[in-house]
Each structure stands twice: as structure tokens, then as C-alpha cells.
Write a structure and sequence with these properties.
With 362 residues, this protein is of the alpha/beta class. It folds into 2 domains: 12-160, 3-Layer(aba) Sandwich (Rossmann fold), CATH 3.40.50; 164-359, Up-down Bundle (Dehydroquinate synthase-like, alpha domain). The protein has helices at residues 23-27, 40-53, 72-85, 96-109, 156-160, 164-187, 199-224, 230-249, 254-262, 272-287, 291-304, 318-328, 344-359, and strands spanning 12-16, 33-38, 60-65, 89-94, 112-117, 129-133, 139-144, 151-155.
Length: 362
């Protein structure tokens, strides 16, 4: 039986300079009692704008600065607040962990959830899943939801004032979206939502890559100077919505498996998005992509400060490379969505090939 094709996305997406000043106006249909789960920086950078948006209303707002990780204990703490105060909507304000905590809390309590990212380092705000940790910070599980967030609101001014390294990491994460989705289409692999891949999903993935190519360099300069420009807004949308909804409804392949293998090293200092960017170069080597395409992606990485060599990820020994390759190819990894599957030996060769080509540029 053919796999059913499907699409999922947040019900509402709001983005723009000082969009948080319009928080209440844009999201008032979600309720009147709000729990804001904030990172320390999220509270500092967003509280006053959000409060101003509620002026003249009788809405209840509870701000809770969380522990910094989406752990079982932290989620239970937030659930207790929801039950005791009759909360209608949970809002994650901060990075991925704050947002994941809010999603999980809303899911278990069967109420609305909103993502309010303060950095553009990953595409987590739009997706229908969370990474859950144990209270000792060890990995527990991926929690998949029956729906995506009710709303996502991104204040471009907040992103412009965040460290530029987060924007660059988000560009790296978004870079894999088109190439991994394309690989899944070739093998009729399932999307992250376990459905068939629609033409709409791939159109978002392609637009994501085109937007990154056209606007990343200018967006990085804007972020470095803490100004909101059309280029920065374009990359915020690519990192957050195009990549998030695109990957959710297309799928993952070798680039993300490379990152998962990398996290198995004793020392893995590089951010998620940086690894996915190099993993995309590795995937192109695995696919035997045309030289012109590989060079285009490689030059893009250099232009935006993304890694083109293993050394830039802190990988310096053959033993480390072999471990990455072995862990990236375990059963259940997304690398098995590639044509003709991939062995650890094939991945090892592709990693070294991508690294060698990167070294030629230095």
C-alpha cells in the first residue's frame, strides 16, 4: 500500500521587527491565562515587550525562568503550574530547550503551545517534536506530537541582537534541509512525520536553500551590526520556518546522521548546525554529486563561516572518524534513507574525501 502524503505546520507564523509588541493582538484567540517558560536571556530580552502588548487587558501572565534543559523533572514542574493556575497556553521563550519544555508541557496538559525563539540556531520552533532529557542531563527520548505548535512568533530585533554564531549555526542546520529532503524523495523514504513527501514540502526545501544562498552573507553582516534588514529577515524565515516545516515534511538523511555520530565522541564541542553543514558536504560525496554542486555548497560554507574540514569540528584522529562513521550507521539512523543504503566504511571514505577537498581550500 502506498504511503499517504501529508503536510503539517504551525497554525500561525508571525515574524518581524518588534513583533512581540503585538503578541497579545496576534495570539489572543489562544486564551487569557499564559505561562511563559523562559531562558534567562529570553526573559531579559522579551519580557518588557510582551508585557507592553498586554496593556489594558486582564490576561494573566506567569513568567517562569527554567533550569536550562527540557528534563522530565522540569516538565513536571511546569505541568504543576498549569494545573494549579488553570493556564490556557504555554509559551517557550528562548532557545530549543525552553521551546521543547513548553511543547511537552502543553502536550501532556492538552492545552495550546507557542514557540518564541530568541535565537535562530535550529529549526526546532516549528517542528512537532521535542528532545527530552533525564534530570541528570542524559538523553531520554524524542517525544513526537500529534500536531505542530499553535503559533510561532519571532521578533527580528531580538534575533539581530543575539550572538551571530547562533545565526550561523542555524544556517548550517538549514543547509541540510534541501539535500536531505531530496535524498528521501529518491528512495520514497518517510518524512519526519512518517508520511509520504509532498511537492509542497520539497518546494519549501528548495526555497530554503535558494534563500540561504542569496541572503546569508548580508544577513550575517546585519546581525554583527545588530540591525534588522530584509536579508536578515529572509534568513530568519529560512532558518525557522522554511527549514523547520521543510524538514518535518520531507525528511533527514546523511547530514544529520553525521551529527548524531559526532555526538558519540568523548569531546564534541561544535554546535549542531556546524556539524550538519559539514555532514551535507559528506552526503554530497556519498551521492557522487556533480563537482559543480559540491563546489557551490563548499564555497557557501566558506563564505558563511561554516566548516569545510574535520579540524574545524575538533576531529583530529582517524579513530574519531571511524567512530563517527560507525555510530552514524547504526540501525534506525536517517542515513539509511540514502539510495542503496550506506555502510560505515563508505561513510568513512566520504568523510575523508570531503575533508580532503576542504583542506585544498586552505
Amino acid at each position: 500500500m502506498a504511503r499517504l502524503r501529508l503536510m503539517r505546520a504551525p497554525l500561525k507564523y508571525v515574524q518581524g521587527k518588534d513583533s512581540l509588541l503585538h503578541f497579545c493582538e496576534q495570539l489572543q484567540d489562544l486564551g487569557s491565562k499564559w505561562l511563559f517558560i523562559c531562558s534567562h536571556s529570553g526573559y531579559k530580552n522579551c519580557h518588557d515587550k510582551i508585557e507592553k502588548s498586554f496593556e489594558g487587558t486582564d490576561n494573566v501572565r506567569h513568567y517562569e525562568v527554567f533550569s536550562g534543559i527540557s528534563s522530565i523533572g522540569e516538565i513536571e514542574k511546569m505541568r504543576k503550574i498549569v494545573r494549579e493556575e488553570g493556564i490556557d497556553t504555554v509559551v517557550g521563550v528562548g532557545g530549543g530547550s525552553a521551546i521543547d519544555t513548553a511543547k511537552a508541557t502543553a502536550y501532556y496538559e492538552k492545552i495550546h503551545d507557542v514557540s518564541c525563539p530568541t535565537v535562530c540556531a535550529t529549526d526546532a520552533p516549528c517542528t512537532g517534536l521535542s528532545v527530552i532529557y533525564n534530570d541528570d542531563h542524559s538523553f531520554n527520548s524524542y517525544l513526537f506530537y500529534p500536531k505542530n505548535p499553535d503559533a510561532v512568533i519571532v521578533d527580528s530585533a531580538v534575533i539581530a541582537n543575539a550572538p551571530t554564531r547562533f545565526l550561523i549555526a542555524g544556517i548550517g542546520d538549514a543547509l541540510g534541509t534541501y539535500f536531505e529532503g531530496r535524498a528521501c524523495v529518491r528512495t520514497d523514504a518517510p518524512s519526519l512525520e512518517n508520511g509520504g513527501i509532498t511537492r509542497s514540502a520539497m518546494a519549501l526545501c528548495e526555497l530554503c536553500y535558494k534563500t540561504l544562498r542569496d541572503y546569508s552573507a548580508a544577513a550575517i553582516r546585519a546581525c554583527e551590526n545588530h540591525v534588522v534588514t530584509p536579508a536578515l529577515d529572509a534568513i530568519i524565515e529560512a532558518n525557522t520556518y522554511l527549514s523547520g516545516v521543510g524538514a518535518d515534511n520531507a525528511g533527514l538523511a546523511a547530514a544529520h546522521s553525521f551529527y548524531n555520530g559526532y555526538t558519540g565522541l568523548e569531546n564534541h564541542p561544535a554546535q549542531h548546525g556546524l556539524c550538519v553543514a559539514f555532514g551535507t558536504l559528506v552526503q554530497l560525496q556519498l551521492e557522487g554529486a556533480p563537482r559543480e554542486e559540491f563546489v557551490e555548497v563548499q564555497n557557501f560554507c566558506r563564505e558563511t563561516g561554516l566548516p569545510v574540514t574535520l579540524a574545524e569540528l575538533g576531529v583530529t584522529t582517524d579513530e574519531q572518524v571511524r567512530k563517527i562513521a560507525e555510530l552514524a550507521c547504526v540501525e534506525g539512523e536517517s542515513i539509511h534513507n540514502m539510495v542503496a543504503d550506506v555502510t560505515a566504511e563508505q561513510l568513512y571514505d566520504a568523510i575523508l574525501a570531503a575533508d580532503a577537498l576542504g583542506k585544498e581550500l586552505q
